Amino acid sequence: MSTITVPPMLPPVQQDCQALHHAFKGFGCDEKHVIQILAHRNYLQRRELVNAYRSMYGEDLLRRLEKELHGNLEQAVLLWMMEPAERDAVLIRDAMKGLGTKDKTLIEIICSRTPSQLYYIRQAYQTKYHRSLDKDIQSDTSGDYRKLLLAFASGQRPEGPHVDMHLADADARELYRAGEGRVGTDESTFIRVFSTRSAAQLHAAFAAYKHLYKRDIDKAIKRETSGDFEDALRLIVKSATRPGRYFAKVLYDSMKRMGTDDSTLIRVVVTRAEQDMQYIKADFYQKYKKPLESMISGDTSGNYKHFLLSLVGGH
């Protein structure tokens, strides 16, 4: 459910390259023309454009964009032009490098991606940074939170829509016995169930939990866990049940206060535009009674605003 619009009759990729090269010439970059092209090409078309530009001009298009653009627009466009797995690898590395860890970003990327996406992210991380994602997670996190991230990042969960209702019922009962049904919490059971079941299977288990115990699993997690471990478990629940609502809240929170959390706004818009942004927009409107486009328009400006609106299907 992508929100980007691609022209029905695309010009040849060489023509796009020539137009971009012309936009870079002279005093200052013609940012509007760059956006007009890049924001309206899908991932495969952008990759073809990068290869063709290098062939025609002997120059890396991303490095040229880095020279020509500035600020939030530069950050957004550069992320947009990366391959999805490389982009997520960059976001993960940025979340862990330096002093302190941006745990919300780390949790969002690892716990909302599919097993196949995580497989390619791990490869991209190793290729780009010559580092093991597992070892970096190991050194930057701790406790049950670390165990959950490592188990989830391994990408060993099954995918697909198949659901075993008997297993869902058994998992619901086991999660209850590990949490609300005892004194203290058996975190290892939560980690095992959450990291070895497909999203569809987890969705069924959470529905069974509510049917059996008249309580949402999310509320049980809030009562039984805390900190980053709680945040990661709750994001897995939301990703399995209604990811659009989760990302709608992240976007709203990035813009609701004085000043905009641009890094979060950019991250979510760029990473979800070709995934499920239509669903996110619908959930955003349902929850906050305003279009996502209007809130972006009110919180950003200039060509940065123009680029974000182009990605979310605004005008």
TrEMBL record:
| Keywords carried by this UniProt record | Annexin, Calcium, Calcium/phospholipid-binding, Metal-binding, Repeat
Give the Pfam families listed for this entry: Annexin (PF00191)
PROSITE patterns, alphabetized: ANNEXIN_1 (PS00223), ANNEXIN_2 (PS51897)
Classify the source by domain of life: Eukaryota
Q: GO biological process: any one?
A: response to water deprivation
Which Gene Ontology molecular-function terms are recorded?
A: calcium ion binding; calcium-dependent phospholipid binding; phosphatidylserine binding
Q: Which InterPro entries match?
A: Annexin, Annexin_repeat, Annexin_repeat_CS, Annexin_sf
Question: Which stretch is the leader sequence?
Answer: none
Q: What GO cellular component is one of the record's annotations?
A: plasma membrane
Q: Show the domain comment.
A: A pair of annexin repeats may form one binding site for calcium and phospholipid.
Q: Which family does it belong to?
A: Belongs to the annexin family.
Give the protein name, as stated in the record: Annexin
What organism is this sequence from? Selaginella moellendorffii (Spikemoss)
